[in-house]
Amino acid sequence: MTKWSEVVRCGSQWEWSPAKWKTKLKSPLKLLYGNYELTLDEKNRLLVPSDIRKAWNPDEVESLVIVPGVNGKIWLYTANFYEAMAQRMESDFSPEAEEVEYDQLNFATAQRVEMDKQGRILIPEKLVKKGELGREVTVVGMRDHIEIWNRGEWAAREEELEKRRAEIAARAKRNKLAGSATVGGQTTGREVIEGSQGR
């Protein structure tokens, strides 16, 4: 059985993560940050910002994975990074129901997309609707992935975050300290920031 003994942060939620990890990334992941106001064209194609493309490994940037995130927004990873996250989780011939749901939520909704020579990706229509995206969007760097927001929703979210800056900083500090607590009989010395719905 997979041992779920590490607590991971998933947005404002906490979830269990496997205690054992199998693989490491082939190359260091550069920090993704900033936000960019962009426009989807009539075919739902999005031009990935050049700063984001430069931060990704050139050998990995053509193949990406797009998936609905826990916050209802569309999240985008390089395929290599997403697959590395999946490989860290041990498989089981008789998984528990929670693990089956976890995999269904993560992997059944994920889709591979290709980036063209102009740096554009095609966002599937189903995900455009799921993310409630209009033509005007904002791409947000989120450390190891990017999120694609309806521009109006991101503007409101950004304003809300600014008003709660001190509260959010204090809570993040408390969570960091709590990361050294004993969980599930084991001591965890770090937080693992979730990608999509948990890794």
Order of helices and strands: EEEEHEEHHEEHEEHHEEE
Overall domain count: 1
Strand content: 25-35%
Count of alpha and pi helical runs: 6
Residues in helix, %: 25-40%
Q: Tell me, what's the shape?
A: globular
Strand order of the largest sheet: 3-9-10-6-5-7
How many β-strand stretches?
Answer: 13
Q: What is Rg?
A: 17 Å
Q: Can you tell me the residue ranges where pLDDT is under 50 for at least 5 consecutive residues?
A: 1-23, 181-199
Output mean pLDDT.
Answer: 78
Top CATH class = Alpha Beta
- Please identify, by name, the CATH architecture: 3-Layer(aba) Sandwich
Distance between the termini: 17 Å
Sheet bearing the most strands, described?
Answer: 6 strands, antiparallel
CATH superfamily caption: Transcriptional regulator MraZ domain
| CATH T-level fold name | Chemotaxis protein chec
Note the main attributes of this structure.
about 200 residues, alpha+beta, Chemotaxis protein chec, six-stranded antiparallel sheet, globular, disordered N terminus
Question: Could you give a quick summary of the protein structure above?
Answer:
The protein has helices at residues 50-55, 79-87, 97-108, 125-130, 151-163, 165-178, and strands spanning 4-10, 13-18, 35-39, 45-47, 63-68, 74-78, 111-114, 120-122, 136-141, 146-150, 182-183, 186-187, 192-193. The chain is an alpha+beta fold. The two termini are 17 Å apart.
